[in-house]
Write a sequence for this structure.
């Protein structure tokens, strides 16, 4: 008797209205789509990215200033009066100048910094760099983490011992200590590898540094997962079918690791934005005249009492972005990690 | 069951599987666990060998050693007389085509990220069992064999019920056109109503494809239904084996008797023999007979000397100093 479908054996996913087969990836995406918090966070992120990408448009057509050149003697019109961007200080001994505060108009919406540059325009340019560095560093990190984690877990033996100890060494350094040491050396001298030279001001340096320092944090769980997958029954089944090792690696192991990697993307991105800001704040990340949210906070330090907006604005930008990434990250984990089924809804 | 040839299809000679536990960098540290301890077993073409025993008796490990999914630590394994105990992955390829495994948990033994089509087509393509243009037809044929509609080929494992998944697992094993299938508790993860259907499918496929089975199970009812011969395992060793009906009618080993008395029956006849204690740790097996710690009939001889599995009349073998009279 080989009757196909008795009532107790109807497809588990009979609820799929279209009847189209759903891959686990599609199913997770659908689940994510209906996660309201994650979708709000995603919209906020999209808005932030688009706004930052429009930085040159804003600088040229709205504020009309060059955010990278100091304009100490510029004057702008406010309420029909010409107001200097850098007003002579009337406080204390009357020495020095105070940059203009937030006008909430087109020009100098968030005020000017110590060099008379438009903070709003710099915020957008800075955001571009912050997001670019964090995103690229995430890719660098995931690439190396996957390479090391999968190699180590899949081949085991001596390979595993060597790679795991290497990760341990990297792990043993406090993250910021490692990042700061690397940055101080590399940003002072630039980096020369064979015929290629990376100049000291290049964004590739912070991308590489931030990407590398978090590799153990991703590589370890990836390695663990590969080892678990290697012992799974479906891999045993493939071995029993005489499937070559490389096919097992590419068709059985890697597709099942991608879930973990996807879950890591928003979380690493959030971590990287904070790290980048910290390094730039310490002047060992993005180099002037380039901006990032970290450098703007640092430049605003001296103005904290008179013009707090210079430091507060990028601070708020960081908080919103990181918060949104973490909320999205939670949603992505719930959607992609099968174990999330065990959690209360 | 009459053996069709002089050589058994699969033969294990004193096959052992040891694991080291507590091993550190220090040489000589760690202790060996004998998951399977010197098991000798022949499987003849056409028969269905039921392998029974409680959890931890080593029956699944033995199944995985027989298919060389695990490396074996001692003894020999022969397929059609050819020694495959040390064969490398490459040397095993022709054997793998003849001997397939079906797993207990069908949701764990199917890759959740692959369509059924890809899973079934992979062995066909890798081993060039069918030319590329015939693979589609063969897939439809395989689905027909296990009683699933062809449209299901494009689905992912999560879209099936447990019984359907196990059918896919069976189809994947059949893709290799094997002679021998080692089924490791293939129905114990399924609902009782579905179990019967899958058991019937096994019986049906045996007739149609001339298959030989090693059927591992802890459900004695299922074993009695499918097997021609039953092998009873306890703590990594075989304690008794024999023809199904005669073994069920008159168990010779006290453990077999206790095991059979545990089958729920409607009639009140036959007293249930309840064993005291648990399976001893394979780390520290009893010195004498493996069953001596729980055997109601154990003597000093049982506690000090391990009985050998000795063949008796009508193909019955028992490892007991004081076998029960039939």
């Amino acid at each position: 008797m080989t009757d196909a479908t008795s009532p107790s054996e109807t497809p588990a996913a009979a609820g799929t209205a279209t009847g189209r087969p759903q891959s686990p990836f599609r199913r997770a995406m659908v689940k994510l789509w209906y996660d309201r918090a994650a979708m709000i966070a995603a919209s906020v992120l999209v808005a932030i990215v688009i706004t930052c990408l429009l930085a040159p448009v804003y600088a040229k057509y709205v504020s009309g200033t060059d955010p990278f050149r100091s304009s100490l003697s510029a004057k702008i019109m406010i309420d029909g009066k010409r107001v200097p961007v850098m007003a002579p200080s009337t406080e204390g001994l009357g020495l020095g100048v105070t940059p203009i505060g937030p006008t909430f108009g087109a020009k100098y919406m968030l005020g000017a910094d110590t060099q008379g540059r438009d903070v709003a325009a710099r915020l957008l340019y800075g955001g571009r760099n912050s997001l670019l560095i964090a995103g690229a560093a995430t890719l660098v990190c995931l690439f190396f983490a996957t390479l090391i984690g999968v190699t180590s877990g899949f081949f085991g033996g001596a390979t595993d011992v060597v790679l795991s100890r290497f990760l341990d060494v990297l792990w043993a350094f406090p993250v910021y200590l490692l990042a700061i040491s690397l940055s101080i050396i590399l940003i002072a001298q630039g980096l020369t590898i064979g015929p290629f030279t990376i100049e000291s001001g290049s964004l590739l340096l912070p991308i590489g540094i931030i990407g590398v320092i978090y590799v153990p944090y991703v590589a370890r769980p990836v390695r663990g997962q590969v080892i678990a997958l290697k012992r799974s029954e479906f891999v045993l089944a493939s071995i029993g079918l005489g499937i070559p090792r490389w096919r097992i690696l590419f068709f059985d192991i890697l597709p099942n690791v991608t879930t973990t990697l996807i879950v890591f993307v928003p979380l690493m991105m959030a971590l990287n934005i904070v790290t980048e800001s910290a390094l730039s704040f310490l002047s060992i990340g993005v180099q002037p005249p380039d901006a990032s949210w970290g450098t703007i906070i640092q430049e605003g330090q001296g103005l904290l009492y008179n013009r707090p907006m210079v430091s507060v604005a990028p601070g708020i930008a960081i908080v919103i972005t990181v918060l949104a990434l973490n909320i999205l990250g939670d949603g992505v984990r719930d959607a992609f990690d099968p174990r999330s089924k065990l959690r209360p809804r | 069951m009459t053996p069709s040839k002089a050589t058994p299809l699969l033969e294990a000679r004193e096959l052992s599987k040891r694991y080291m536990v507590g091993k550190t960098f220090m040489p000589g540290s760690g202790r060996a666990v004998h998951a399977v301890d010197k098991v000798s077993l022949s499987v003849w073409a056409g028969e269905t060998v039921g392998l029974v025993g409680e959890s931890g008796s080593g029956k699944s490990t033995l199944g995985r050693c027989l298919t060389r999914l695990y490396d074996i630590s001692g003894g020999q394994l022969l397929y059609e007389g050819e020694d495959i105990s040390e064969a490398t992955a490459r040397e095993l390829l022709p054997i793998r085509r003849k001997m397939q495994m079906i797993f207990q948990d069908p949701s764990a033994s199917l890759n959740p990220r692959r369509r059924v089509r890809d899973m079934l087509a992979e062995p066909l393509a890798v081993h060039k069992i069918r030319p590329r243009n015939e693979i589609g037809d063969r897939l439809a044929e395989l689905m027909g064999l296990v009683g699933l509609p062809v449209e299901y080929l494009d689905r992912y494992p999560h879209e099936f019920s447990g019984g359907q998944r196990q059918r896919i697992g069976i189809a994947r094993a059949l893709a290799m056109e094997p002679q021998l299938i080692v089924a490791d508790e293939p129905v114990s993860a399924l609902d009782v109503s579905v179990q019967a259907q899958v058991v019937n499918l096994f019986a049906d496929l045996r007739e149609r494809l001339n298959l030989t089975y090693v059927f591992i199970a802890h459900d004695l009812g299922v074993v009695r239904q499918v097997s021609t011969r039953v092998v009873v395992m306890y703590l990594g060793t075989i304690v008794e084996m024999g023809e199904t009906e005669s073994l069920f009618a008159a168990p010779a080993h006290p453990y077999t008797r206790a095991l059979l008395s545990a089958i729920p029956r409607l009639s009140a006849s036959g007293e249930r023999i309840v064993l005291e204690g648990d399976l001893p740790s394979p780390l520290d097996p009893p010195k004498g007979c493996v069953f001596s710690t729980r055997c109601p009939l154990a003597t000093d001889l049982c506690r000090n000397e391990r009985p050998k599995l000795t063949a008796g009349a009508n193909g019955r073998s028992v490892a007991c100093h004081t076998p029960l009279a039939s």
Remarks:
- The two ends of chain B are 21 Å apart (CA to CA).
- Chain B is about 30% helix and 20% strand.
